[in-house]
Specification:
Order of helices and strands: EEEHEHEEEEHEHEHEHEHHEHH
CATH class: Alpha Beta
Number of domains: 1
Mean pLDDT: 96
Number of helices: 10
Largest sheet: 8 strands, parallel, barrel
Shape: globular
CATH topology: TIM Barrel
Helix content: 25-40%
Radius of gyration: 19 Å
Bound molecules: NADP nicotinamide-adenine-dinucleotide phosphate
Structural class: alpha/beta
């Protein structure tokens, strides 16, 4: 497994990170607690040291499961990244989403962040968070004010470093002036490449970490979403145009090229997708959403795969030809 510091911080994180959204169950058709805890431990035992979760994943459940899973490990050997700013227990002027009978609101007010960090620490069973991130921007709280609150958390020792997710480029530029600000987390994969011209140039010129989320396009880029695969109605992939027959056919054309490289390097399609993503300029870490021990070990095994420049360009050419998702 290759490791890289989170930006200019002294936090050394495995380049492949355990993505803990799906184990929360919410939007992923439910969860199994024992299986989730085993999956996290399998990831740690296979060389990952970093886990990305959020307060809102399963409305606290993902953080709780992470806290339970890491109990047998030394705390200093694990890098915990979590997020604040999406609340399901209070109403604010900014509705973020409505799902499974719950309304989720955005807020990054000082009072809210100060409350949320203590809730997360309790659920995670720890007295510090390695990387604390805003989940989504709050239109009512300027980035500078959020960063002031984050500085207070750093001073109190509750948090070691901070970052943004789903950030506007302008906010990212504001944040680079703060010493403790080290990362940007955005959607990025072979089929979602908008960040190449959006935040990645800012990330690169300011030596920030870039954490790519949904790098497997929520399963589409693993080869496991075949034409006949179905999803439970409470799974976000059910009825989603990105998972339509047309989209799957277009993905399949791309994966034919990935598969030819996979055969040459004796790895799987998802492992080659992982390696390609981690070799894109500025991408430092990749968050692989993982639910089972098998997926954990499999995803970790791609942690030191380096593709040749010829293989990389063959895949990039195919990704450039990707026709896009069904509308
Ligand atoms: N900041 C944000 O707003 C944000 C948004 C989205 C995600 N994230 C973070 O990024 C992480 C990853 O994103 P994601 O979960 O959306 O998508 P993802 O990592 O692209 O895909 C995850 C899905 O891929 C499948 N998968 C994973 N490993 C596999 C393997 N080895 N073989 C076959 N299938 C495999 C699993 O599908 P099955 O469930 O079908 O097995 C899994 O649920 C999240 O967990 C979260 O930490 C952050």
């Amino acid at each position: 497994m290759l490791f890289e510091p989170l930006g200019q911080s002294d936090i050394n994180a495995s380049r492949i990170v355990f993505g803990a959204w799906a184990i929360g169950g919410w939007k992923w058709g439910g969860t199994d607690a024992d299986q989730s805890i085993s999956a996290i431990r399998a990831a740690l035992d296979s060389g990952m040291n970093c886990i990305d979760t959020a307060a809102v994943y399963g409305f606290g459940l993902s953080e709780q499961l992470v806290g339970e899973a890491i109990k047998p490990y030394k705390r200093q050997d694990i890098v915990i990244a979590t997020k604040c700013g999406l609340r399901w227990d209070v109403e604010t002027p900014t509705l973020h989403a409505e799902s499974e009978g719950k309304k989720i609101y955005r807020t990054l007010s000082r009072e809210s962040i100060q409350w949320e960090v203590n809730e997360s620490l309790t659920r995670l069973g720890t007295d510090y968070i390695d990387l604390y991130q805003t989940h989504w921007p709050d239109p009512l709280t300027p980035a500078d004010d959020v960063l002031d609150t984050f500085d207070e958390l750093i001073s109190s020792g509750k948090v070691r470093a901070v970052g943004f997710c789903n950030s506007a480029k302008a906010d990212l530029e504001v944040a680079t002036s703060r010493l403790s600000f080290c990362s940007d987390q955005e959607k990025y994969s072979m089929v979602d490449r908008e960040q190449e011209s959006a935040n990645l140039p800012v990330v690169r010129s300011n030596q920030l970490a870039f954490l790519a989320y949904s790098p497997l396009a929520q399963g589409l880029l693993t080869g496991a979403v075949t034409a006949d695969r179905t999803f439970a109605p409470s799974d976000l992939r059910h009825g989603n145009p990105r998972f339509s027959e047309v989209s799957r056919r277009r993905i399949s054309a791309l994966l034919t090229v990935v598969d030819s490289v996979a055969k040459e390097v004796s790895m799987s399609v998802s492992q080659v997708v992982t390696a390609w993503t981690l070799q894109q300029p500025g991408v430092s870490h990749l968050l692989a959403g993982t639910r089972t021990t098998e997926q954990a070990a499999h995803n970790a095994a791609a942690g030191d795969l380096l593709l040749s420049s010829e293989a990389l360009s063959r895949i990039t050419d195919a990704a450039n030809r990707f026709e896009g998702f069904d509308q």
